[in-house]
């Protein structure tokens, strides 16, 4: 079973914000590639369990707010007995320009509080991830990530979201190493 986690903050006020790239990617993937909604409540989040080409896939959107995302992830991992190597986390990254994605098999949090909490609660940095570029700011980081991108940046970010959706499909069909080589 593969667990795909999209990070973000619940609530209408955060929709379309830079910090909700994980939600945006996983919602688009669920709709465009799987034809489902992520609408079941449980594990401190919204989730859905589907079959994709003979493979069991769990989609999760933690509803704990970004900084406590690990609580939701740990609950679903423990319940379904998911191996660490079968977890993929999608989130925003200020170190990448809008329009870029980066796929990694492990690493530090890079200062991102959502992945930091997941790493802390799972006890490992060996977590696969897809990072979606949102760009940098010289102003308040909190205001920036919780804000909505300009229309120009939004077009680039939408391109990155589509790349991430295609990367997820490739990962499920061809495996992580193939995806890493094709999409980085």
Give a quick summary of the entry.
This protein has helices spanning 21-34, 69-80, 113-122, 141-146, 151-174, 176-183; strands at residues 2-6, 40-42, 45-52, 55-62, 87-93, 101-104, 128-133.
Description:
There is one protein chain. Helix content is 40%, strand content 22%. The protein has 184 residues and is of the alpha/beta class. It has a 7-stranded mixed β-sheet, with helices on both faces. A hairpin with a 2-residue loop joins strand 2 and strand 3. Helix 1 (21-34) packs across helix 5 (151-174) and helix 2 (69-80) runs parallel beside helix 3. The longest helix is centred in the C-terminal third of the chain and has 24 residues, at 151-174.
How many helix segments? 6
Mean pLDDT: 96
| Outline | globular
Q: Give the fraction of residues assigned to helices.
A: 40-55%
Number of strands: 7
Give the percentage of residues in beta strands: 15-25%
Order of helices and strands: EHEEEHEEHEHHH
Identify low-pLDDT runs: none
* Major sheet size, sense and barrel closure: 7 strands, mixed
Give the strand order, joined by hyphens, for the main sheet.
2-3-4-1-5-7-6
**Termini distance?**
24 Å
Alpha-carbon Rg, integer: 15 Å
Classification by helices and strands? alpha/beta
């Amino acid at each position: 079973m593969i667990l795909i986690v999209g990070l973000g903050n619940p609530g209408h006020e955060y929709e379309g914000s830079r910090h909700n790239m994980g939600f945006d990617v996983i919602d688009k993937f669920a709709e465009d590639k799987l034809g489902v909604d992520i609408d079941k409540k449980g594990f401190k989040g919204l989730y859905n369990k589907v079959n994709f080409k003979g493979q069991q896939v769990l989609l999760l959107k933690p509803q704990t707010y970004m900084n406590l995302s690990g609580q939701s992830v740990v609950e679903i991992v423990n319940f379904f007995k998911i191996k660490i190597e079968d977890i993929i986390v999608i989130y925003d990254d200020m170190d990448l320009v809008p329009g870029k994605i980066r796929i990694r098999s492990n690493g530090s949090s890079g200062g991102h509080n959502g992945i930091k909490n997941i790493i802390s609660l799972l006890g490992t940095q060996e977590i696969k991830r897809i990072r979606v570029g949102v760009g940098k700011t010289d102003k308040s980081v909190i205001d920036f990530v919780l804000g909505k991108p300009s229309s120009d940046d939004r077009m680039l970010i939408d391109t990155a979201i589509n790349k991430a959706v295609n990367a997820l499909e490739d990962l499920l069909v061809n495996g992580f190493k193939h995806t890493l080589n094709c999409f980085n």
